[in-house]
Specification:
It contains eight helices and 15 strands. By secondary structure, the protein is an alpha/beta fold. β8 and β9 form a beta hairpin. The longest helix has 17 residues, at 115-131.
């Protein structure tokens, strides 16, 4: 059977989100205007769907909007950082914003931030859940990585666990207690290349796990309802195609778009594993990649319940594709109307 062309990335377009051997010039790789997306949300209207949300073993997903999602993308790095521009990251931003809108989320996009700006953005975003009642939180961060940590545009390392994730624990974010929190993290966690193995093997299903028996308790643990998806495993690089974006988000967007109407999020992550396992670079090494999902007290099913009326408006990614073989700093294509919706978003949500 002929392999899907998009599943074998062009060798000349594949990169890793790790530090290069030489210092680059500073480039702005973002296809979105900084002033346009700064501090502004995309509001998406959706009607609650019935059926699944009444189940005590299913997270409610019926608010309007369903939740709030923040995308932080570092694509342009300052010369002193020692990191190359992340060409193709703009494609991830556009496709993820499209996906989250389709799922009924209000979306905030932040581009090319220094460490202090990242921390401020996280704090401001977290504060919105104190002011607006929604059913879910999504935080997506894309950048280079060094020493297992995230780096800002100046090359400074950020400990994601200590400086970001803990801010959303039940003890520090009461507004999200008992609500699902999804973190999508795209950056290298080491310098090792995944070259795969010569002996083919079948996909192994997860071992069966006994159902969690919950008893009525008087208080919550400090950490619950977390799903943390890292684009790669500790020690390994994360692959990115300059035309189609990162491998991880290529697979995630494809699977979520096809299955979010009827499939639980963890089942979708299992499907993403299968899809990502099929991807490889089109060079002699046939480079591979494995992503990782960490479950911290995420014990219920989660169905996004996207509104049917949004399917036609947000369900097509074709306009996001750039037909050129390379990503141009100023000629990246953006879906028609995207900037206008982002400009009006946060104002509409808070008023």
């Amino acid at each position: 059977m002929e392999r899907n062309k998009e599943f074998i990335d062009n060798i000349e377009l594949d990169e890793t989100d790790a530090k290069p051997s030489k210092h680059p010039d500073y480039h702005n790789t973002s296809g979105l205007d900084q002033e346009t997306v700064k501090n502004e949300y995309q509001e998406v209207q959706g009607k609650p769907q019935s059926g699944k949300v009444s189940d005590t073993n299913v997270y409610p997903m019926s608010s309007t909007p369903r939740g709030m999602a923040m995308i932080i993308n570092n694509g342009a790095f300052q010369p002193q950082s020692g990191f190359n521009p992340r060409h193709g990251s703009d494609v991830d931003v556009q496709k993820l914003a499209n996906l989250f809108q389709y799922l009924g989320f209000a979306v905030l996009v932040k581009q090319d931030l220094a460490q202090a700006e990242i921390m401020e953005s996280i704090d401001d975003f977290k504060q919105q859940f104190e002011e607006t009642i929604v059913d879910m939180c999504i935080v997506c961060i894309m950048s280079h990585g060094s020493g297992g940590n995230l780096v800002d545009i100046q090359g400074y390392e950020i400990d994601v666990e200590e400086e970001i994730l803990k801010k959303f624990y039940n003890t520090q974010c009461p507004a999200l207690q008992g609500k699902p929190k999804l973190f999508l993290l795209q950056y290298c966690r080491g310098g090792e290349l995944d070259l795969g193995v010569e002996v083919p093997s079948e996909f192994r299903d997860a071992l069966p796990v006994d159902k969690l028996k919950l008893q009525r308790i008087s208080k919550l643990p400090a950490v619950t309802d977390f799903l943390i998806a890292n684009s790669t495993v500790p020690g390994f690089v994360s692959n990115r195609n300059m035309k189609y974006g990162t491998w991880f988000f290529q697979c995630l967007v494809e699977v979520f778009k096809e299955n979010a109407k009827h499939m639980d999020i963890r089942d979708m992550f299992d499907q993403i594993t299968r899809v990502l396992n099929e991807k490889e670079s089109n060079d002699s090494s046939r480079r591979k990649q494995t992503f990782e999902v960490t479950n911290r007290g995420f014990y219920k099913k989660l169905y996004f319940n996207p509104d049917e009326v949004l399917d036609e408006e947000y369900g097509n990614d074709e306009e996001y594709k750039n037909d050129d073989d390379t990503v141009s700093d100023k000629e990246e294509q953006i879906k028609k109307g995207f900037k206008k919706r982002v400009r009006e978003a946060w104002k509409a949500l808070v008023n």
